[in-house]
Amino acid sequence: MAKTDILLESGTNELEILELFITGRSASGGDPEQSFFGVNVAKVMQVIESPQLTPPESASNECYMGTISLRKHIVPVLDLAVWLGIEREPHPFEVVMVTEFSKAVTGFLVSGVTEIHRVGWGDVAPPHEYVSRMGSTSIIGMVNRNKHFIQLLDLEQIITSLEMDSTRFDIAPETVASRKYRALVVDDSPTIRMMLSRNLQAANFELQVTGNGQEAFEYAQHIAEKAENEGRPVQDYLDIVIADIEMPLMDGFTLTRRIKEDDRLTEIPVILYSSLITKELRHKGESVGAVDQISKPDMDQMAERAISILEGKKLQGL
């Protein structure tokens, strides 16, 4: 499966998701039930037939099934059903979805895949609006397609929770701001919000944290109106916006574009981040006005790079 970009055009609030399903045993003893999930196509390297791995007895987590060799990678394979608390109904045609993001290649065992959907982030409802069968923090949103709901998976949350990702961005920053800066932090993942908040607060940032781009833009507009009413520059209330790219309701590209189109907010710098920053995505970020873009494995540099932008220092590698 060829990779595509996370968003199809700059600031269009759209993405493509691969729909997959897990067939679980019915709690009532009836026919097996299918649960449908979605992942960003850009993170999928390929889908292969399941090698029918037998989980090792010494596995550190019950969802770990072993490893496979693929394209010079040694790929750990996780049973997604176990992680989500589904009693999977085994069958001989299961597949492994191999993903690549955050500098890590990981396989997820699922019952099968169906098709690719093009959706808008505005069509993605936050999971709290529905009763998710799993009740899992790994579900970041819900999409209604073909008379059933597709639950969008936060694969980074799964990897982080299993401590399979060596990335650490909750460590103390090396640089501390010379004065208190006010940052708007935007991410739908509670884990990422917590880690990023620790990093920035330790670097002398005061934070306003929101869960998606729509909430963030509404907050930014509120700040702009307050500044107007009080006859003060907006920078008296907000210095910088730091946002994830992939979020329900409004993605980071669209958020950046709308901030830059608002004359009251256009001077506020925006840093975007994602587990996947390609050359094409970097170009898209630049086209909507992002001042910097950071991949999640490098997010331990977030405070330093934000301070460099605000204090006019030259960023390394930009």
From TrEMBL:
Pfam families referenced in this protein's UniProt entry, alphabetically: CheW (PF01584), Response_reg (PF00072)
Matching Gene3D superfamilies: 3.40.50.2300, CheA-289, Domain 4, SH3 Domains
Organism domain of life: Bacteria
Assigned keywords, A-Z: Phosphoprotein
Response regulatory domain mapped to chain residues: 182-311
GO BP term, pick one: chemotaxis
Positions of post-translational 4-aspartylphosphate modification: D244
Keyword Glycoprotein: no
Residue ranges annotated for the CheW-like domain, each copy included: 14-164
PROSITE patterns hit by this protein: CHEW, RESPONSE_REGULATORY
Protein name: Two-component system, chemotaxis family, response regulator CheV
Organism: Desulfobaculum bizertense DSM 18034
Record lineage: Bacteria, Pseudomonadati, Thermodesulfobacteriota, Desulfovibrionia, Desulfovibrionales
